[in-house]
Amino acid sequence: MRGARIALIAALVMLAAPPSEADRISTRSGPPPAGVSIPSLTHGQMAVIRDNLPAIRALASAGLGFDLTTWRLKDYLNLQSFACLWGIVPGSITDEESPFNECAHAYLAAGRALLLQLAHEPGADHKSIDALISKIEVEMLADGASLNLCRYSDEPFNTNEIIWPHWGMVPFIRRPR
Question: Where are the domains of the chain?
Answer without folding.
Answer: 35-170
